[in-house]
Each structure stands twice: as C-alpha cells, then as structure tokens.
C-alpha cells in the first residue's frame, strides 16, 4: 500500500474542513461529516469478450452529511474542489446559495493514472496452469479486477482520523457447463500462485460435479469448509445482528445477551485484523473501529451499529458504519468476521458423518430479517464416506431459522484460515466482506436439492 | 455541456488521434438527482451531482477503455491498449442522429422538492394503511433525476441528448413485529416523480399482500391447468426473463426452436416491440449509447418472428435493419445491446372483461420470486400469487404456487391481450398488458 505521504488526501487541510463541517451540527446529539474518496478499478475481461482489453475507471468526489434527530441530509459531488465542497455544505444546511459557507483549499495529490497491474494481467494464465495441474480442462472465462479506494473522513470535532486505503482483487468465472447465469467468484487481498490455486480448486470441483445429481432431501450432518462457514456466518450472524435489521423485528438493544448458538461458538467483527491491504483503523464515518463480539460463547454480545444507531442508544457502539461510496449513506455492516477456532481437526469433524455432506463453497444466501428464516445455496458438495469427502453431489440448499442453524453447530475446527471473502450487496450497496474461519460441523439440519 | 453536441470533446479526440488511436470515442455525462428515503426509523434527503466520462479507443491491434469523474482529460493519461481492436459505428447519413426527434417538454421539469417528495412517500403509507388493515411500510425510496449526455467519435458520430428518470421502490408488510405476515417489494419507474400515484401503488401493494397472506388455496394440491389471466406486472416479469429470445445475435436461433407447424413462434395475439423513442417512455432518447439513432423495431408480429433486436455490427445480411440499441447503464459502463422499452403490444379488451370471461381459472397478479428460465430445455417456472376465479369473480386468494410450462406453451398460449399496457423497470423498461393465457400449469405449494 502507498506510504502515507502518497495518499491522495495526505495534504488535505483537515482542520479547515473540520471547522466548516462543525458549523452544520448546531445542537447536542447532532453530528456531521465530510467524506472524501478516490476509487480506482482496473479490469481485465475474458480474452474473447470482443471489447476493449484492459479497462480502467478512476473517480473521486466528496459527500457532506448531517444527522439530526433521526433525520439525515446528504449532498454528494463528483469532484473535490472548494466550490463543490461549499455547495455541498449549503445543500445540507439548506441555506440560500449566497450564504457564506467556507470554501477551504482542498489540496489533493494529483491523479496520475492507474498504476500498472501486472498481477491482474498474469492471473488468467496462472489459473489456467493450476487447472491443468489438477488434470482438468474446460473453457475458462475469467474477469480479473483490482479495486483500490482511498478515503478521508473529517468530522466536526477536532479529532480527525487518519486517511484510509484499501486494495483488493476480485476474480469472477463464467461456468460454461452451468448454462446462462452460471458463475463463481471470490475476493483476494493478494493475487499470485496461492490465489490461482484457490480459484482452480473451486472451479475444478465444480466442473467435476457438473453432472452430479442434486441430493435427496435429508436431515443430518453437514461439514462446512472455512469458505462456506464464513458465508454462513456472514448471513446468519453478521446480517442478523446489524442494528437496522434487528430493528425490523423489535428493539436492537433487546438482542444483547440472547442465546443464539451453543457455548463454544464465538464470532467477532474486527476490521483491524482484516488482511493488511484492507485493514481499517476507522470506519466510513470516521469512527474508530472496534473488536466487537457479535456472539460470545453463543450469546449475542454487541450488535453492529453505525453512528446514527449508536447515537440513539446507550448500549450500541459505533465503529461499524460502512458505505458503498460517496453517493451512498453509511449503514451498519460487518467488515472482517472471525469465528474463533475450536479444538477439533477436520478429520474429527468428518468422522462419524457418514452419509452427510462436505460443502466447500457457498453461493448465495438470503436472510428474511422479519421471520429470522435463512437460506444458503451451495453449487455442489461431496458426500462424506468413511470420514472423508467422496463422490460429488449437485446443487443443494440449507434452510431454517437463524436460531435453529446456529444451534445445530456441533463442532468447530481448530485451524482458522482467511477464507470466504466476497461481495455483500445489502440495500443495493455492494461492499467487500472478509472472514477468518475454521471448518464447522452442523448436525440435524435440513438439506434439500435445488436447481 | 458544450453548445454544439460533441464540440467540447474535440480536444480529447484530437489527443487520441495524435497518439495513434484510429478509432476513438468520448462520452460525457452530467446528472443530478434527489433521493428521499422513509422507513420507521429515519427520514433521509439526499442530493447528488454526478459528472463522468468514458473513452473507447483502439489501434489496429488493441484497444482500451478508460472512465473517470469530472471532465474528460484533454491529454490523458490513457492506459496501455490491450486485448482486441474495436470497431466503432459510422455516422448515420440520412438526416443525422436527431432526425425526427422532438424532446419531450417534461425534460424541463424541475426535480421533485424535498417536502413534496417526502409527502408522496408519506401518502403511500397512509393509502396503504387505508387499503388493507395491518399493512405497513417497511421502507420507501424515491429517486428523481435528470441528465445530459454528449458523445463524439473520430468516425464523425456526434450526439447530445437529455434524460429524465424517477424510480420508486416500496417494501411493505402485513402485520407487525417479527415473523408476522408476508412482505412484498415493488419497483416502479416514471419520467418524473410527480407522475407516481400513491393510491394506485398502495392498491397494488395491498392486493399483493392480501393474496400472499392466504397461502395456497385450501385443497390445492398437485397441479391445475385452469385458464389464466396474468396482470401486467406478471406479464412484464415473464417477458423480461425471455429477453434472450428476442435480443442479441443468437436470438433468432433461440426463438426459432419455438416455431410451430405454421412457422409462428407465438400466438396471433402476440406482437413484441422495442421502441427507443417510445412517446412517454422513461428511457426515450434520440440516440443510443453509441450515438446511433433509436427507433421502433417490431420483433414479433402477430405470432411471427420478424427480427431480433441487434446492434449495427451484429446484424447479418439476411436480417432486417439494425437499430440503435446499445445502451449505457452509466458513464462507467461499456455500451451493450439491450432493449429500451420492450413490450407486448396491447389489445382491445378491457382487462376486467378478460377476468369476467373466466368460467374457472386464476387471475395471477405478480411473481413472488425470480422466474427460472431454461432456454436450452425450453422450460420456465415462476412463483406467483393472485386469486382463484369462479364464474368471472375472485373466489379465494392464491399464493405459494408456481406457474410453469414450456416456453412454447407460454408464447403460443397467449390468447388475448388487454388494452392496459404498463411498464416496469428491469434491464430497460419492459411492458405488458393483461393477458389471457391457456396451456400452462399451476403447481402446488412451492418450497
């Protein structure tokens, strides 16, 4: 990641911006912030896409927001300039254009174009080699992207968080054997041989399961590999414990202390321990991030809350406010989930699970916050026989209530790995989410085939 | 934006030309929008100003795509070209891109005001509560926007045009607290926010909630092949799922598999059109995302396939004239072949008459989940809700059932179309009137 001096907003006059923003929040309990961002996307489409090769998008802009008594005003611009900032302030304050709002100098390190991305250009060939090394061959259509974002939030108070920077990669594969819409994707903090191996492992498994029949419905054991466990946690724990989601069913504060899972199940959200290129010290509202116990020994510790929800509560804490970009308002969202490891090896999780399923990769999940029902789809899996993954099975689905699924956790592996990173698109705001998780064994869950 | 379409983009084109890019195109867009949001916990008012540009350029061997905020930079920097060369469209000679175009007067209409817009959202909540006891809004979002676009290429294509779109998303539920009653989400689009009618929308949402609250009708098991009437929302949803049959270079072959012995791909009542200049259309524009003139294209006429919707470089010699149909979702996006206003043409019958004529059947309001369409297998299935109908009158709500069949049965089974064409936002606007359909199957509770 670039040194601090190279950060686009390293020389921004934050004190002047802070003084300007502080004029918006007039009364106790109100707060305001200015958000500056620069975003870069470098995309390599499939070879046979027919359009331009490397594609680069770079953008920058700002947003000003005021929150007052449950109401929010936001003005966003696609430029970083004193006049644009002044206009945004006036819009949010809802004053006449001639009102004397300050237009501080906004010095931004010039945009000199996208840095080269050889790791992006090399990735399709790496994956191709890795697939061949696994003695498989199929048409490979990959889209590889590098995403970079630089953020500076300035709040009205004197404390100004450090500028933040993130870099991540996404790999999306079209699955020609799965018909229209057959896709696989994952996020990585680094691209190289390890990422290529991970992509190849997933695609080869899906290829070999392409003609496998979906399993008959059953109630029994499933063992989720770390990547699949991470997606389960994201949907069933993280989303379920976001303050705005909890509020749909009642008071978010009332969730604290409720037992959702067995003792031994502890889940945290900690943006400060995410992989280094995406690690954060402050959230997208400029609030310090925290190591937050979502579940501690099975009981709800602390829901995810942003500044708005925290301001209305004596129990909820901010630091989990995230936004898709300057044109989106912040909201509660997890960043980096950690499932604390248990004491069982994978062989122990698989033992005595004969007839159950080993599920390595999860697809889409959906949580109905009002009913607490939850569904997670898997594109393929493997039947467990003699304590090991055996023949492939086709698409299957895990469904139930959040409480029932978490209560079904019967074993947690001892080796937590960084896995299961992906895009979360709650409310139309797409953001990367990360996880560190071990394998997990569920007992007594209902599994059905689909597709 | 510049006074003459494309003139502000000339310095960028000149720079690209000096760097050896024989093919070059610059697109610039400026827009502003107001977004209002209302839910039980917050009221939000947002004002957005967006400004972006995009360049496609190529040499004889490779090409690039670059996009960014602000004004397009007259001297780059540009990424190194890669991949394949591109071909950009030549200009249309006869009358120019804007020939025959009259900009609608409501493009001048100001964006909805904050108070005005919040009142619309609040009115939806009030009307909904009046329509159906226990119904409540979970969230409603209104976005009203206006934009100006400009395009120029080294091939001589130049165009400037404006747009005006308002989108309304409503989520509502029946009953309070956790787990109580069904929830529905509805999305509508108009050219400006003042055209949304809170009462009509509330009725649509209330009908959906009432139907879904009932679950499958008592005794409904297995399958039923009763006569069906599909409301416009469901007809449009199904048509949106069938876009690959009528759009793109492979569409002719895909839809050809549905031909009957008379050589028709659908019933006589079926005419399908895409119209980039549809009067009153939300996405109406004189040109597409490559600056080529839009027009009305008949894809299916009284059951006979006429042509696919294809762009200038996708049309084969035997196909009819290509249309300007490469749409850009935004300045960040490459143009892609897509419909603007794709619709099943309306008929003459009042929609109520189509329902009244049912001796026994179902009036289906809407899909309750995404349709699953298997083009290779020629089959579809979609979860739906609505009402059972006996002797022309609704007898019981129906939900948790699946409408299914072959694509051939669907298209050939459309017997009549009502006169109530309505459009809904999908990838482009997709429209349908009320339809009477036979030959399809309703299956028992969906899992």
In short:
By secondary structure, chain A is an alpha+beta fold. Chain A has nine helices and 24 strands. Chain A has two domains: about 5-210, PmbA/TldD fold, CATH 3.30.2290; about 220-450, no CATH class.
Which terms would index this structure?
heterodimer, A: 451 residues, alpha+beta, PmbA/TldD fold, 2 domains, nine-stranded mixed sheet, seven-stranded mixed sheet, 24 strands, B: 447 residues, six-stranded antiparallel sheet, 16% helix, 38% strand
Protein described:
The complex is a heterodimer of chains A (451) and B (447). Chain A contains nine helices and 24 strands. By secondary structure, chain A is α+β, with helices and mostly antiparallel strands. Chain A folds into two domains: 4-208, PmbA/TldD fold (2-Layer Sandwich); 218-449, no CATH class. In chain A, the strands form four sheets. In chain A, strands 7, 14, 15, 16, 17, 18, 19, 20 and 24 form a nine-stranded mixed beta sheet that branches. In chain A, strands 8, 9, 10, 13, 21, 22 and 23 form a seven-stranded mixed beta sheet that branches. In chain A, α3 (118-133) crosses α4 (193-208). Chain A starts with 13 loop residues before the first helix and ends with a strand. The model of chain A has no long low-confidence stretch (mean pLDDT 91). With 447 residues, chain B is α+β, with helices and mostly antiparallel strands. Chain B folds into two domains: 7-214, PmbA/TldD superfamily (PmbA/TldD fold, 2-Layer Sandwich), CATH 3.30.2290.10; 223-443, no CATH class. Chain B has seven helices and 23 strands. The longest helix of chain B has 18 residues, at 114-131. Chain B starts with 9 loop residues before the first helix and ends with a strand. The chains are: A alpha+beta (451), B alpha+beta (447). Chains A and B meet through β2, β3 and α6 of A and β2 and β3 of B.
């Amino acid at each position: 990641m670039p040194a601090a001096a190279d950060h686009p907003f390293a020389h921004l006059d934050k004190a002047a911006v802070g003084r300007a923003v502080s004029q918006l929040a007039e009364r106790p309990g109100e707060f305001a912030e200015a958000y500056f961002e620069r975003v870069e996307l470098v995309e390599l489409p499939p070879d046979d896409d027919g359009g331009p090769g490397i594609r680069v998008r770079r953008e920058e802009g700002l947003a000003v927001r005021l929150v007052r008594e449950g109401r929010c005003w936001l003005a966003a611009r696609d430029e970083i300039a004193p006049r644009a900032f002044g206009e945004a302030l006036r819009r949010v304050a809802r004053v006449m254009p001639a009102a004397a709002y300050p237009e501080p100098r906004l010095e931004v390190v010039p945009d000199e174009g996208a840095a080269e991305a050889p790791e992006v250009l090399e990735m399709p060939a790496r994956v191709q080699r890795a697939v061949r090394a696994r003695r498989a061959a199929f048409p490979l259509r990959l889209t590889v992207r590098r995403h970079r974002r630089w953020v500076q939030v300035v709040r009205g108070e004197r404390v100004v968080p450090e500028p933040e920077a993130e870099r991540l990669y996404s790999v999306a594969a079209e699955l020609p054997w799965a018909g229209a819409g057959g896709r696989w994707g994952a996020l990585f903090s680094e691209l190289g041989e390890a990422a290529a191996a991970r992509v190849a492992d997933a695609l080869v498994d899906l290829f070999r399961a392409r003609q496998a029949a979906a399993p008959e419905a059953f109630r029994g054991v499933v063992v989720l590999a770390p990547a699949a466990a991470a997606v389960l946690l994201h949907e069933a724990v993280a989303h379920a414990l976001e303050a705005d989601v909890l509020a749909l069913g009642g008071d978010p504060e009332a969730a604290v202390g409720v037992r959702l899972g067995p003792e031994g199940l502890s889940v945290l959200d900690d943006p400060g321990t995410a992989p280094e290129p995406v690690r954060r010290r402050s959230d997208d509202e400029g609030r310090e991030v925290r190591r937050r116990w979502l579940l501690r020994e099975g009981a709800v510790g602390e829901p995810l809350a942003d500044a708005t929800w925290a301001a209305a509560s004596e129990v909820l804490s901010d630091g989990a406010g995230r936004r898709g970009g300057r044109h989106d308002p912040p909201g509660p969202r997890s960043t980096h989930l950690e499932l604390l490891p248990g004491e069982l090896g994978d062989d122990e999780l698989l033992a005595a699970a004969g007839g159950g399923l080993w599920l390595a990769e999860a697809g889409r999940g959906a949580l109905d916050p009002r009913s607490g029902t939850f569904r997670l789809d898997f594109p393929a899996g493997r039947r467990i026989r003699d304590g090991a993954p055996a023949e492939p099975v086709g698409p299957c689905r895990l469904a139930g209530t959040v409480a029932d699924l978490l209560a079904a956790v019967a074993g947690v592996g001892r080796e937590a790995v960084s896995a299961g990173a992906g895009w979360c698109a709650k409310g139309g705001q797409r953001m990367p989410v990360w996880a560190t998780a071990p394998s997990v064994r569920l007992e007594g869950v209902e599994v059905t085939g689909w597709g | 934006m510049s006074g003459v379409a494309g003139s502000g983009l000339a310095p960028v084109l000149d720079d690209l030309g000096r760097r050896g890019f024989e093919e070059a195109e610059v697109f610039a867009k400026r827009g502003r929008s107001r977004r209002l949001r209302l839910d039980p916990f917050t009221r939000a008012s947002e004002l957005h100003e967006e400004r972006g540009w995009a360049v496609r350029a190529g040499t004889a061997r490779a090409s690039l795509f670059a996009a960014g905020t602000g004004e397009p930079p007259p001297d780059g920097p540009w990424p190194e070209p890669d991949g394949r060369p591109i071909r950009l469209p030549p200009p249309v000679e006869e009358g120019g891109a804007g020939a025959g175009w009259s900009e609608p007067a409501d493009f001048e209409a100001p964006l909805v005001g904050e108070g005005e817009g919040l009142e619309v959202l609040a009115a939806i909540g009030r009307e909904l509560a009046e329509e159906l006891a226990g119904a409540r809004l979970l969230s409603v979002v209104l976005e009203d926007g206006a934009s100006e676009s400009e395009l120029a290429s080294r091939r001589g294509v130049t165009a400037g045009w404006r747009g005006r779109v308002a989108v309304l998303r409503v989520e509502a539920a029946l009953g309070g607290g956790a787990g109580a009653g069904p929830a529905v989400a509805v999305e509508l689009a108009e050219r400006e926010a003042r055209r949304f009618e809170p009462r009509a929308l509330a009725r649509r949402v209330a009908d959906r909630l009432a139907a879904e609250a009932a679950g499958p009708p008592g005794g409904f098991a297995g399958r039923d092949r009763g006569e069906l009437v599909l409301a416009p929302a469901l007809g449009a949803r199904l048509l949106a799922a069938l876009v690959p049959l009528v759009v793109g270079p492979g569409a002719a072959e895909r839809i050809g598999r549905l031909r009957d012995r008379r050589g028709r791909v659908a019933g006589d009542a079926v005419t399908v059109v895409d119209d980039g200049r549809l009067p009153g259309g939300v996405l109406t524009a004189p040109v597409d995302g490559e600056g080529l003139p839009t027009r009305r294209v008949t894809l299916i006429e009284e059951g006979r396939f006429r042509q696919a919707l294809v762009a200038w470089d996708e049309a084969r010699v035997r196909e009819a004239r290509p249309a300007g149909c490469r749409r850009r979702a935004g300045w960040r996006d490459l143009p892609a072949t897509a419909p603007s206003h794709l619709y099943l043409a309306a008929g003459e019958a009042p929609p109520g008459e189509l329902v009244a004529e049912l001796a026994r059947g179902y009036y289906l309001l809407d899909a309750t989940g995404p349709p699953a369409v298997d083009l290779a297998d020629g089959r579809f299935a979609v979860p739906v809700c609505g009402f059972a109908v006996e002797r022309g009158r609704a007898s019981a709500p129906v939900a948790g059932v699946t409408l299914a069949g072959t694509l051939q049965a669907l298209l050939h089974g459309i017997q009549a179309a009502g006169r109530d064409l309505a459009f809904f936002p999908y990838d482009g606007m997709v429209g349908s009137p009320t339809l009477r359909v036979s030959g399809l199957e309703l299956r028992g509770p969906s899992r």
